[in-house]
Write a structure and sequence with these properties.
The complex is a heterodimer of chains A (318) and B (669). Chain A contains 11 helices and 3 strands; from the N terminus they run ααβαβααααααβαα. Chain A is an all-alpha fold and 318 residues long. Classes of the chains: A mainly alpha (318), B mainly alpha (669).
């Protein structure tokens, strides 16, 4: 019975992330529009977009291969699984031991691998430019993320996100220089990985600076819907990681009962709203940078993560 | 029993090699040689696998009355040898299966067939050798038979030079190993491994470590001793390339593990730091070299360099932990390294088989002249894709599991008390993280440029799927990539006797855990379940596809590519290997390779094409090898005069040498 309940909660988490992700994107767009004193699209617009896309027929390029058609499903599935394994409203769910933080980073790597290959499949120059730049960004963002993971897991003595969240609430942590460096590094990685300003512009088309949009230029219909849903999920995932590690208060712990889950869900929604608001403000006040400056930006993130790890190695007294 | 069976398999292989000399011109020779090699390797694989699972730790020993008269040839199989025999014979069996199809396209079978079984026998013998003489003899036998295979197509441009460099580096490595064994045996001269093990630790143990690192490292491809590897491995026929990259480098790792963890006695902490640092630098440099490469087989060879680096990171950490008496952590480092040995042998063989299939179908190794092969060779493309995902350390495949274990070992290392290690290990962790991410970029390039997009040449357009033998062999390896990725617990358990024997501890038993999760230390610390992830991904993708196809549109229409409304018909406008890696070259290459880009623009009004040249410097080659070669040729020119002296001068030289030696002896005493 207890196991059945835990399974239901795990399934609930999978559905919650899937349902909330487009709302988060719509909310960020709305806040950005309001900051620019525009009315902006309604909050539910991303859902309508997805619905319209899955109803449309797919227009495939003549020489698109089977990989091009399979990739969206795999990208969506890996991103969804990764997002479902990050603690959102509750920690210690039944399958949370399946993947630790390193595995979650690698799962996102799998999704990116497929996406970059799909960008090269049709053989257009825009697809190539997107894939090439995406892999350059990833080659710096992924190590930076791993260094942040190192920092957190050295502090918590674990790479499991649930254990890290629990230890961050414990008495032994307090304010640390390493944590601050890791937070800044993680935010920089999250911005780059989600193709946000200043690294990439999610609203752009027909610009030589675009990265993510260039890779998916040939996609249409249900395939495009899946990829869009995956990128909504990815934004939610990164915000969930930041919230779960750096603002762990109010998260329910598995087995606490329905009341705690509902409270956890409410607090989680509040955290998402706050983070989404900050993201929108940040994107509004900053300008997009040249693509070859991105390496400086992410190199700084990598160095921050490295410094945080090094500080922990050195300050550890044995 | 097991040992005798293995030696009979090896004798069969050697006999096949000799017989192949006589019948190389016969039509059925190819089928016969690869068929016999396949059977021998399968039997040896079964025996080695059974030994690994069932044998108790001291193993089985046997002395044959060949070799040095007062020594004989000692052979022994213990857990370590059994594990490496599994790797060698798995590689041998799949390569032989592949060779059954691939070998038919061979232009000069007489140059390949005799040496191929000999090479397999040599690798088996190195792993079984139990005294220094047998070890060195079989090591040289392995080197020379593989050299002969590298020279099989010696008329192709570049191959003769590659063979020459390989021969030089192999002799240099053996020289280092010879000196290492000399120091290990000590003045008493006990060359059997038992005698070395029971003797007190050699006084110059640090020197032995460095010599072993040079000797085994030059065969395995540690930077800066890697220069021969990307030239020699691709020069051989593809199934031999797979054996050299996937298996022979592992035999070199075996030599290093045998000397350092078994024969040399308790390690000192700085050994671990040195080995892990070299591993980190090798991993990072290897993948950067690979990114700059557009020859498919050479790119794979550079990735071997990278993966050897990852293996040595694990070994170095294990040595550092062992020196500080942390056996559990040492077992983790060692298990990670050995699991990566197995994994790399599987996916590297797979990738070389794929490259070989492309080479047979198109005659091209240059990726810039390929493209669109996924339409013409769908099965090869699928196999190569799985291999690429596995080597890029993507879950749920096997490469990820061993890299994950290495990361876990790194996360245990703040407990190491030495300050130098505290600074070094985070840097090594960063290098490992960078090389994992860059490897993914490199394989997007390798697969994307060769197999995706539109064909760039006629040969790529007219390619045809490869034969069934080759495909069977590739799909066996695809299955292994997935199996080792989703059921890693069984593989880790199989490694337990090896790490028990070498590090004095092993990881907790994994097979009884729920959902086949692997837990290297404790559940609350870290866990990973490839099976669950695989099921979840399959389920999520299946649900997504089902929901969309049932309730939404399944209509599909083919049309011209959109490409922002400006599609270009010419396949030349696609991204190439060079343009794909250009951003990464800008980020890393200007420092590591001193890369310089020169753009020659025609003056205004001139309609000729603009040109861009990229200059890359191979820094280890420029700094280390070119001056050494200059020094050697300078010394040789000077010494040349000694060959043309009068008899009186020679007598004086002999006398002088005698006097000097006597003085040295007198001072020494």
């Amino acid at each position: 019975m207890a196991i059945a309940l835990e399974l239901v909660v795990q399934l609930g988490q999978m559905l919650v992330v899937l349902a909330l992700a487009p709302l988060l994107t719509g909310y960020v767009r709305k806040v950005k529009a309001r900051l620019l004193r525009r009315q902006g699209p309604p909050l539910l617009q991303p859902y309508r977009d997805l619905l319209r896309l899955v109803r449309k027929e797919v227009v495939l390029a003549q020489n698109a291969s089977w990989l091009f058609r399979v990739a969206p499903y795999l990208i969506f599935a890996t991103t969804w699984v990764a997002a479902a394994l990050v603690p959102t409203f509750a920690t210690g769910l039944i399958f949370s031991h399946a993947a630790d933080m390193i595995a979650i980073v690698a799962l996102l790597g799998s999704a990116r691998f497929m996406l970059a290959l799909a960008g090269l499949d049709v053989g257009t120059s825009f697809g190539g430019i997107g894939s090439s730049r995406e892999m350059m960004i990833a080659s710096l963002a992924e190590p930076a993320m791993l260094m942040v993971v190192f920092t957190l897991s050295l502090l918590a003595g674990s790479t499991q996100l649930s254990s890290i969240a629990a230890s961050m609430q414990g008495p032994g942590v307090g304010l640390r220089v390493s944590l601050a460096l890791a937070l800044v590094g993680l935010i920089m990685v999250a911005i780059a990985e989600n193709a946000r300003i200043p690294v990439d512009n999610p609203a752009t088309h027909l610009e030589l600076t675009m990265v993510h949009e260039a890779m998916i230029l040939e996609y249409s219909g249900r395939h495009l819907a899946l990829i869009e849903a995956a990128s909504h999920l990815k934004l939610l995932l990164y915000i969930s990681i930041i919230a779960c590690v750096f603002v762990p208060w109010g998260t329910a712990v598995s087995g606490q009962g329905l009341g705690a889950y509902v409270a956890g869900l409410g607090i989680y929604a509040a955290k998402l709203a706050a983070a989404g608001f900050m993201l929108a403000v940040f994107e509004t006040v900053i300008a997009k940078m040249r693509v070859f400056r991105v390496s400086d930006f992410l190199g700084a993130a990598l160095m921050l993560g490295f410094l945080a790890t090094l500080l922990l190695f050195v300050s550890r007294v044995t | 029993m097991a040992l005798q069976g293995l030696l009979w398999c090896i004798a069969t292989l050697l006999g096949t090699g000799v017989a192949a000399i006589a019948m190389a011109r016969h039509r059925s020779a190819t089928t016969l040689v690869y068929g016999v090699a396949l059977c021998a390797c399968m039997i040896a694989l079964a025996i080695a696998g059974w030994s690994l699972l069932a044998l108790d730790s001291p193993g089985e020993a046997l002395t044959l009355p060949v070799g040095l008269p007062w020594l004989g040839a000692h052979f022994r199989i213990d857990a370590l040898a059994a594990f490496f025999l599994v790797v060698v014979n798995l590689g041998g069996a799949t390569a032989s299966l592949y060779g059954l199809g691939y070998g038919r396209h061979e232009e000069t079978p007489g140059r390949v067939l005799p040496f191929y079984p000999a090479f397999l026998a040599g690798m088996n013998l190195v792993v079984l050798a139990d005294d220094a003489f047998t070890f060195l003899f079989t090591w040289e036998f392995m080197s020379l038979s593989s050299w002969a295979l590298v020279m099989a197509h010696h008329r192709r441009p570049g191959n003769a030079a590659a063979g020459y460099l390989y021969l030089l580096m192999a002799s240099f490595g053996t020289l280092a190993l010879l000196l290492a064994f000399g120091l290990l045996a000590g003045p008493a001269g006990g060359y059997a491994f038992d005698a070395i093990r029971s003797a007190p630790t050699a006084s110059l143990a640090g020197v032995v470590l460095v010599l072993a690192l040079v000797g085994a490292g030059s065969k395995a491809g540690l930077v800066p001793l890697h220069v021969w590897l990307p030239l020699a491995h691709p020069a051989a026929p593809s199934h031999v390339s797979a054996l050299m990259s996937g298996v022979m480098t592992k035999v070199a790792v075996y030599g290093f593990v045998r000397i350092v963890f078994d024969l040399l006695g308790p390690p000192v902490w700085w050994w671990g730091g040195l080995v892990a640092l070299l591993g980190g630098v090798t991993a990072f440099m290897g993948v950067l070299y690979a990114l700059m490469e557009h020859d498919l087989k050479r790119l794979l060879a550079y990735h071997t360099v990278e993966n050897i680096g990852i293996i040595f990171i694990g070994l170095g950490l294990a040595a550092a932990f062992e020196a500080n008496e942390m056996p559990g952590a040492a077992a983790l480092g060692l298990t990670a390294a050995l699991f990566h040995v197995f994994n790399h042998s599987v996916f590297k063989s797979l990738l070389f088989f794929g490259a070989g299939a492309v080479l047979t179908a198109t005659g091209e190794r240059d990726m810039e002249r390929l493209g669109g092969l996924i339409h013409r060779m769908p099965f090869t493309a699928f196999a190569f894709l799985i291999g690429s995902a596995a080597i890029s350390a993507l879950p749920p495949f096997n490469g990820f599991v061993s890299e994950w274990l290495t990361f876990q070992a790194i996360l245990l290392s703040p407990a190491l008390p030495q300050w130098l290690l505290k600074f070094l290990v985070p840097a090594i962790g960063a290098l490992l993280a960078l090389s994992a991410a860059l490897a993914a970029a490199c394989f997007v390039k390798a697969f994307g440029v060769s197999f995706l997009g539109r064909p760039r040449t006629e040969v790529a357009r007219d390619a045809a799927e490869t034969d069934r033998w080759s495909l069977a062999s590739m799909f066996v390896l695809v299955a292994l990539c997935l199996l080792a990725g989703i059921l890693p617990g069984y593989f880790i358990d199989a490694l337990a006797p090896v790490s028990q024997a070498l590090a004095g501890a092993h990881l907790p038993r994994q097979e009884q855990l729920d959902w086949l999760t692997i837990v290297p230390i404790a559940q609350s610390r870290s866990s990973y379940s490839g099976l669950l992830l695989f099921l979840f991904i399959a389920l999520a993708a299946g649900v997504g596809a089902e929901v969309i196809h049932r309730w939404a549109s399944a209509a599909t229409r083919r049309s011209a590519p959109w490409d922002c409304g400006f599609p270009d018909a010419s396949p030349v406008t696609q991204y190439t290997a060079g343009s794909f890696s250009q951003p990464i070259r800008r980020v890393f290459g200007s420092v590591v390779f001193r890369a310089r880009e020169e753009v020659h623009m025609p003056p205004p009004g001139d309609v000729s094409a603009a040109r861009m040249h990229v200059r890359l410097h191979d820094v280890p080659w420029d700094v280390l090898y070119v001056p050494t070669a200059k020094l050697v040729s300078f010394a040789a020119e000077r010494l040349n005069k000694v060959q043309f002296l009068t008899i009186r001068a020679y007598l004086t030289l002999v006398f002088g040498a005698l006097v000097v030696l006597l003085i040295v002896l007198a001072v020494w005493q």
